[in-house]
Amino acid sequence: MVTRLTVALLFGGRSSEHEISCSTAAGVLSAIDRTKYDVIPIGITKDGAFTLQPDDAALFAMNPDNMPVVHDNGTRIHWPSSALTRELTVTDASGETRSLGDVDVVFPILHGPFGEDGTIQGLLELAGLPYVGNGVLASSLGMDKHFAKTALEGAGVTVAPWVTVSPRSWSEDRDALLAQVTSLGLPLFVKPARAGSSVGVTKVSSLDDLDAALTVAFAEDSRALVEAAIVGREVECGVLSGRGGSAPRVSVAGEIIMHGREFYDFEAKYIDPDAAELVCPASLEPDELAEMQRIAARAFDAIGGSGLARVDFFFTGTQFVVNELNTMPGFTPISMYPKCWQASGLSYTELIDELIQLGLEAVR
Predict the structure, then answer these.
(1) Which of 111, 167, 277, 299 could form a disulfide with 257 if both were Cys (CB 3.0 to 4.6 A apart)?
(2) More confident site: 254 or 262
(3) Helix or strand run (H / E) with residue 164
């Protein structure tokens, strides 16, 4: 008889990407190998309550007309009281507390702040629970575009030129910052330092529109990046840690081809099915793919990556410029990260299994 491991699946959360995390949960719940794993679905409401949710993928499936959310059903999850136990308990809406048993590993499929940024990872480390994905430092770095770019530049990875702005610096040093921004040329992209799924991102074709774009970005975070636009193909690849401390593994490349939109915004990613086409594998020469994979692995190592990441590039035809490094990329069955690994020979179910095994062996 095979003993199944217990996986606590964490999803939802307090960020603006709550609904995307829920749809990711639907994908994992529907594909995880039930002969190997029992699943405890833990949904985090938009107010931050940890709740026990039904093990039903259909409840959280992506629906552009009715986006999935974690509803507060009155239950409350209690994490282990010390690192000496892995037992989870839940208090039901009636007030009765019961055990959910021991958890072998936590799978946090959270996007954005309060989940992808090292906060949940810190909680799990304090509780002594193994978990899937990047650790505290890599998660924090990957979430913060300014510091991620700084780390990547320090490792010799080419990134788009940028200027980081806060409301205070924009108010006190506007002329100096505007001179730096002007030197980047037009068009520009303005984005929150800590947000994902293109939430709060604006393409700016005139400096007259810069203030409005910053206002949108500041609604998501206390700092914003103003980046030079890079003209090139949008290509991405997935990274997986190597087993036993070996070198990272990198998938084949995928490409985003836009249809009728200026850039790959939230609507194009999740709402409008005709706005973009995800092509995998992308058409690259063997030496081009090898160079892209080399840079992706270097970027992953530069932030101290563990488990998984998706590295997004602009390919100018002669150079790969890293746009972003995502430490918890979109993970629905049709997302680019799983598609790249499927094209590399690893099915969605196998990818989930590999990530869980990497989480169990990770040394934090």
Answers:
(1) 277
(2) 254
(3) strand 162-165
